[in-house]
Amino acid sequence: MTVIDVHAHVFPRLTRAEARVLAGGGQPWLRVDGGGTGMMMRGDEEYRPVGEALWDPARRLADMDAAGVDVQAVSSTPLMFGYAAEPSRAADWCELVNERILAFCAAAPGRLLPLCQVPLQDPALAREVATRAAAAGHRGVHIGNHVGDRNLDDEGITAFLAHCATIGLPVLVHPWDMLGADRMRGHMLPWLAGMPAETQLSILGLMLSGAFERIPESLRLCFCHGGGSFAFLLGRADNAWHRRDIVRADSPRPPSEYLDRFHVDSAVFDPRALRLLVDVMGSGRVMLGTDYPFPLGEKEPGATIRACPGLDDADRARLLGGNAEAFFAPAREPAPVHDLVTTEG
């Protein structure tokens, strides 16, 4: 059985000088301090101390071997998205980041699957960058769950998601830039409360806005952190859809009828929570995700899946790797690049 982690981050070795291209977008870069330690930087500001597993593929592969992880889908750290920058600068930045992620994954092509990032603030430009990245070898695209006040159901962003479906590029959605930050001071509350709320908002937004009706069913879409608070609150959303016309105004079906349109990872850290998640989503829609190598990630990859009550061996095999193998399988017949980059919308 192949064990595949779909939620693992990287911060390639990008210098302060290289980060200046992202003027207006935070200018993230990596300061390597020696002794296996470093600091994620935002301009001249220290953002978070980190270890070498974040940028050193040899250390990462050693950790994977020790943990029994065969494959990781490698995505950028959300600090690197650059959505606040001017689009052309953000596009140049994404091209640079994507090149570095490809170089990082070249250390073990069969084990490290590169996911690109795109300038989502300009969906047309994002489509071009995604198309080039797919042609260069990226196996998916990693996006934030919103761009400023534009959610995933924004017309331009849904056009981008439809484009990803057309070229067969899987999409991993990560919460970031959390709402209500002024009320979540200290104790990492934006991560503990804000991230699950952001993901719940994104999933319900796609359902209730009718966006899923406009996006091809072939889109392979995955939400991190178990879909946030979505599974626990699905009953509340369904009840509201049936009882209030303003809830169902743009959605022809209740939320529970869209569960076959997306996947979630397993990063809920409690076997009881995972049991609920599998009950709601089905064993074919949940994939191992650890949030490696950050401290809030799963320390023993797959431990929650293995401890989850009520799963048989076939279920565990699906969650630990089988579902991800299908999710990241190369597209059979992607559309020609020259046709895609000029598509309107």
- Mean pLDDT across all amino acids: 94
* CATH architecture level-2 label: Alpha-Beta Barrel
- Name given to the CATH homologous superfamily: Metal-dependent hydrolases
Strand content: 15-25%
Number of strands: 13
Question: What's the main sheet like?
Answer: 8 strands, parallel
Strand and helix order: EHEEEHEHEHEEEHEHHEHEHEHHH
How many domains? The number is: 1
What is the class in the CATH system? Alpha Beta
Distance N terminus to C terminus?
A: 42 Å
Question: Helix proportion of residues, in percent?
Answer: 25-40%
Identify the strand order in the major beta sheet. Answer: 1-5-6-7-10-11-12-13
The CATH topology is given as: TIM Barrel
Helix/strand-derived category reads: alpha/beta
| Helix count, DSSP H or I runs of 4 or more residues | 12
Name the poorly predicted regions: 334-345
Q: Which characteristics define this entry?
A:
12 helices; 345 residues; 17% strand; alpha/beta; three-stranded antiparallel sheet; TIM Barrel
Give a brief rundown of this model:
The chain is α/β, with parallel strands linked by helices. The protein is 39% helix and 17% strand. It has one domain: Metal-dependent hydrolases (TIM Barrel, Alpha-Beta Barrel), CATH 3.20.20.140.
Describe this structure in words.
Helix content is 39%, strand content 17%. The chain contains twelve helices and 13 strands. The longest helix has 20 residues, at 189-208. Strand 12, helix 9 (271-281) and strand 13 form a beta-alpha-beta unit. The chain is globular and about 55 Å long. It has one domain (4-10, 55-340): Metal-dependent hydrolases (TIM Barrel, Alpha-Beta Barrel), CATH 3.20.20.140. With 345 residues, it is of the alpha/beta class. Residues 334-345 have low confidence and may be disordered. The strands form three sheets. The chain has an eight-stranded parallel β-sheet.
